[in-house]
Amino acid sequence: MESTEFLVRSAVILAVFGITLLIATYSTYAERKIAAFIQDRVGPNRAGPMGLLQPLADAVKLFFKEEFVPANANKFLFIAGPSLAMLTACMASAVIPFGNTILIDGQYINVQAIEVNIGILYIFGVVALGVYGIMIGGWASNNKFSLLGAIRAASQNISYELAMGMSIIALLLVSSSLSLRVIAQQQGETLFGISGMNWNIFYQPLGFLIFIICAFAETNRVPFDLPECETELIGGYHTEYSSMGMGLYLFAEYVNIFVASAVMATLYFGGYNFPFMYDLGLPHNLVTLIGTGVLFIKILMFIFFFMWVRWTLPRFRYDQLMNLGWKVLIPLSIANVIITAAVILISEQGLPW
Question: What pLDDT shows up at residue 298?
Fold first, then answer.
């Protein structure tokens, strides 16, 4: 029995890692195709049918390009920066439940790489470490544009992590758990007479809005891409990088987009739960399989939204970015926590409205 669980858990870990890298790889292709569609162009169409081999061609190109290290750079830190950024990006997906449970030999096994009862804290801790990869790379490059980009990234992450954390606190008041699996399971309950529809988006719409705005800032995406602002900083913190150093930074961004999309889908949109999931009378393993597919559909929709916004909105000025974080999002997140706590207290005490 234990050997079966070990094999299944190992397979899940390898599958999560492989799917994370695969989706991040083809997110680069999707981004270019979506940009081409919005701008009335064709996009990549030479490497393979419809350009489907373009990400592989890009990877081969980056692998075989010369690895250039500036003369006055700190070589160890110059290499460690993108490595740390990529490592922390891949670590974050370990605690995300990509499905309910599968029944094998009478034993229920979680479709999740690692189950910890403080999954949200784990993700926040790992994501917070990711900015060190940017800071180290920007500082080690010994380039003023890289350093400015690194400083922007650090201050931006600090500013928006506060509002993101407060939005999560309001969600924790509703769910009473730090475990992503428990939060996902709670959303599988019945709401409006429909099983699998007790999604947190119905209870925390403002919290979700704050969270998704902060997710854009945490992943350095437009309109919050000030750390790599090409028009001002010539690429920002990765100005001096080439070959796979540049590739790891760019790839880590897409992995972070995938993780952010998976977290938002899990916390607010039911995760692997879907409408009528327990009313169809399907076998348990089939329901789990469908739920995993539904979760990935939700994730892909969020990834598309990230890309759609990139080619729709202009970049903020830096003072506008800071004003939004400190003067708008943080007060709103605090108000959301207070309102959520008041509603829960009133409902528990049975006090009249």
Answer: 96
Q: What is the rounded CA–CA span in Å between residue 266 and residue 287?
A: 17
Q: How many domains does the chain have?
A: 1
Task: Identify the band that residue 68 occupies on the pLDDT scale cut at 50, 70 and 90.
Answer: confident
What SS3 string covers the chain? CHHHHHHHHHHHHHHHHHHHHHHHHHHHHHHHHHHHHHCCCCCCCCCCHHHCCHHHHHHHHHHHCCCCCCCCCCHHHHHHHHHHHHHHHHHHHHHCCCCCEEEECCEEEECCCCCCCCHHHHHHHHHHHHHHHHHHHHHHCCCHHHHHHHHHHHHHHHHHHHHHHHHHHHHHHHHCCCCHHHHHHHCCCCECCECCCCCHHHCCHHHHHHHHHHHHHHCCCCCCCHHHCHHHHCCHHHCCCCHHHHHHHHHHHHHHHHHHHHHHHHHHCCCCCCCCCCCCCCCHHHHHHHHHHHHHHHHHHHHHHHHHHHCCCCCCCHHHHHHHHHHHHHHHHHHHHHHHHHHHHHHHHCCCC
**Close Cβ partners of 214 (under 8 Å, ≥ 6 residues apart):** 160, 161, 163, 164, 167, 329
pLDDT at 353 over 50: no
CA distances in angstroms from 66 to 77, 204, 235, listed in the order given: 18, 49, 19
The pLDDT score that the predictor gives to residue 2 is: 62
Mean pLDDT, residues 279-295 = 89
Q: What percent of the chain has pLDDT over 70?
A: 97
| 95-151 tens-digit pLDDT | 999 988 888 877 788 888 888 888 899 998 898 888 888 889 888 888 888 888 888
The band of 211, judged by pLDDT with boundaries at 50, 70 and 90, is: very high
Domain that holds residue 301: 2-349
CA–centroid distance for 231 within its chain:
26
